[in-house]
């Protein structure tokens, strides 16, 4: 079978990595690149840097990756849908829920694969965590808490930290628990003089009853990417910066210290850091997108899922404005 002809629009800070991986994935041939801003990272190689999505389509592509600023996602994706091109759009799916809904409908009605680049799902630590939770190793899941904080990335200008980083945590939380959000309540702060929020704190509940908590900011000098899933038998801690997964088991030994035993909770047990293969998340994401286009089994993030994530993010921001919880 001939390789899928791939086009990429956007070769900035994230697009340059898409360019590299598209050249490495079996069954995919990167044949066209477009970016009105040129090639700042010199990744085009022998390909001409085209000026827009129309010229990308004219190159005769089967699949496309959209890695341009969020405010341009809608226009590019709708033109690609009209041209019959299967498309992976970087997260968040769109600037607004209405745009995301139109995009989702456009790809669905044309029978095209529309995917969203929520790359954290493909992090090896979270993939292993999801597998173990699904296998029942944690028992009932009670709570999922995430912390995602670090310095402001100068490349982000058109969205706040909720859509840029918070969308990762909302997507991965619903995916790990296999349950959509039922409610969200959030606080935001604006501390760095930019138009959009740079710090959020959110709490919520999934339809399954799992309680969730998210701390996300661009105001910390340290970088942290942690997901903690607490349940009946202990807690999993996934560090997506390193790809490590650790399990803290509930203790099984009777306590003989009276001051401690009077607490009717769990006790400290064994701690295990798991060993498992760690593949680059972006490569795994592209392989999933390729497989979806070929009609094979895949784990790509659909536009429907990307839209639901954006709806929760918008709900978080609405809650911060009104001081009221938002239900779905």
From TrEMBL:
The keyword NAD is assigned to this record: yes
Q: Where is the GFO/IDH/MocA-like oxidoreductase domain?
A: 127-236
Record key words, sorted: NAD
Q: Which Pfam families match?
A: GFO_IDH_MocA, GFO_IDH_MocA_C3
User: What InterPro entries does UniProt report for this protein, alphabetically?
Assistant: Gfo/Idh/MocA-like_OxRdtase_N, Gfo/Idh/MocA_Oxidoreductases, GFO_IDH_MocA-like_dom, NAD(P)-bd_dom_sf
Q: Which domain of life is it from?
A: Bacteria
Is Lyase there in the keyword field? no
The Gfo/Idh/MocA-like oxidoreductase N-terminal domain extends over: 5-118
User: What is this protein called in UniProt?
Assistant: Gfo/Idh/MocA family oxidoreductase
